[in-house]
Amino acid sequence: MLPTAAAAAMPWDRRAPEREGPPSAWSLLPEDLAARGCPGRPEHVFARLQRVRTWQPDRLFVAREIRAWLADHTDQSLPAILERHPSYDGSTKLVLGLADGQRIEAVHMPRHEADHRVTYCVSSQVGCALGCTFCATGAMGIVRNLTAGEIVGQVLALMRDLGPRCGESVHLVFMGMGEPLHNLDHVHRAVTVLCHPEGAGLSPWRITVSTAGLVSGIERLARMVPRPQLAVSVNATTDAARSATMPVNRAWNLARLRQALDAWELKRHERFIFEYVLLAGVNDTLEDADRLADWLGDLRHRHNVNLIPMNEHPHSPFRGPGEQRLQAFAARLHQHGCFITVRRSRSRDVQGACGQLVKQREAAVG
């Protein structure tokens, strides 16, 4: 593992570029509205901003004085849905435009017809600094962080245009573009706003933040309230293999990652999710399955392992394993007592699956 000074110099541990400008109306909590002198009852204004089901087609349903104050003191721009790419499986990949012309991607994933819950896969950055060699977003490099207002606005835009318009029916996964823990301040602020009982009303139990193993962020998130669920991408069972495909391992190796997880004081309802992307000929042997079970140790009996056949894309030379190799890997983990889910990624046909999201900078919108 690199010494502390070297780890601190890594690009993923430096603050990514940020967009400047007035505060976003979508990122302000009731106490922020009160402190900034917003007229009216702050809880009422916050609720009107965050509860999509109260929105009017042409304006916020608040007094004219409050609308004028918001226009003068805040940025009310929402990410605009510019493209929709429906998949055969019922999900939709979305391209959203930001106010400065940058573009991000998200995925809207309804469940079966009898269940009105919907999962949103959202982005936390434009690009990503981690450079995982099997991920299309990593090929972009880092462009900038999303602000808390852009993250909340991304969710609200999906609720408004695709539904459901009630936050209690939304599951949220930060598995889109970017490393969420590299932008933890804005991500956590967005989670706090979205989980506020006077607002959209999402539950932190239904929000999952996925990390490639940014230990400094894991240790910070462990102390935060509200605290979402944590998913960790492992993807290799030796430091040599993991460092070759996930450069973050050069700073925080598998032992250090496990140390951070052991220090996380789990609440009764909390479970870790361990994600393992299978790459043909790289990390898909039975010996890899044995080592993964050993690394998990006692965690294998309580937490879930998501096996994800690599979603192929032009930015990576890797390929997914065959079905026989996938099933053999899963069976060996099962023999070790692991809880297994083989995750058949949705939106693969429209390049909207895990590891496929990438968008180059385009001209400014409007």
Structural overview:
- The chain is elongated.
- Helix 10 runs parallel beside helix 11.
- 28% of the residues lie in helices and 17% in strands.
- The chain is α/β, with parallel strands linked by helices and 366 residues long.
- Residues 1-8, 347-353 and 359-366 have low confidence and may be disordered.
- It has 2 domains: 4-16 and 78-350, TIM Barrel (Alpha-Beta Barrel), CATH 3.20.20.70; 29-73, no CATH class.
- The protein has 11 helices and 12 strands.
- The chain starts with a helix and ends in a 24-residue tail after the last strand.
Describe the main β-sheet briefly: 10 strands, mixed
Q: CATH topology of the largest domain, which one?
A: TIM Barrel
Mean pLDDT: 89
H/E element string? HHHHEEEEEEHEHEHEHHEHEHE
Number of strands: 12
Strand content: 15-25%
Q: How many separate structural domains? A: 2
Low-confidence stretches: 1-8, 347-353, 359-366
The level 1 CATH classification of the largest domain is Alpha Beta
Helix count? 11
Oligomer: single chain
- Span from first to last CA? 47 Å
Radius of gyration: 21 Å
Strand order of the largest sheet: 1-2-3-4-7-8-9-10-11-12
Q: Could you name the key traits of this structure?
A:
366 residues; alpha/beta; TIM Barrel; 2 domains; ten-stranded mixed β-sheet; two-stranded antiparallel ribbon; disordered N terminus; disordered C terminus
